[in-house]
C-alpha cells in the first residue's frame, strides 16, 4: 500500500483485552453476526476488483477503490476475526 494511503488505525492498536467476555460470550446472534461480517469484509479484495472493472472509465474512483477502500475493508475483516477469536 502506498504510504499516502496509510490506514488511520492498526489491528495492533485495538485493545482486545478490554472485551468484556462475560457480556458477549453467550450471545449467539452476536457471534454469528460478527463471524458473517468478518467473512464478508475478508472478501473485499474480490469485490473491490469487480468494482474497479465495472468503473473502468473512472480512473480516480478505481485508484481510490484499489489503493484505499480495499485495504480498509480487509482490515475490518481482520479486526472482526480477531474479535471473534
Structure description:
The chain is mostly helical and 85 residues long. The chain has one domain (24-84). Helix content is 66%, strand content 0%. It contains four helices and no strands. It has helices spanning 21-24, 28-42, 44-54, 59-84. Helix 2 runs antiparallel to helix 4 (59-84) and helix 3 runs antiparallel to helix 4 (59-84). The model has no long low-confidence stretch (mean pLDDT 90).
Q: How many structurally independent domains?
A: 1
SSE arrangement, N to C:
HHHH
Which range best describes the helical content: under 10%, 10-25%, 25-40%, 40-55%, 55-70% or over 70%? 55-70%
Low-confidence stretches: none
Strand fraction equals: under 5%
Number of helices: 4
The span between the termini is 26 Å
Please summarize what this structure is:
With 85 residues, the chain is mainly α. The protein has helices at residues 21-24, 28-42, 44-54, 59-84.
Amino acid at each position: 500500500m502506498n504510504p499516502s494511503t496509510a490506514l488511520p488505525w492498526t489491528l495492533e492498536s485495538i485493545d482486545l483485552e478490554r472485551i468484556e467476555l462475560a457480556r458477549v460470550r453467550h450471545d449467539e446472534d452476536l457471534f454469528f453476526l460478527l463471524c458473517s461480517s468478518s467473512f464478508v469484509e475478508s472478501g473485499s479484495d474480490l469485490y473491490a476488483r469487480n468494482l474497479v472493472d465495472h468503473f473502468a472509465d473512472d480512473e480516480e474512483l478505481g485508484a481510490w477503490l484499489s489503493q484505499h477502500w480495499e485495504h480498509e475493508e480487509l482490515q475490518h475483516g481482520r479486526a472482526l476475526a480477531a474479535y471473534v477469536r
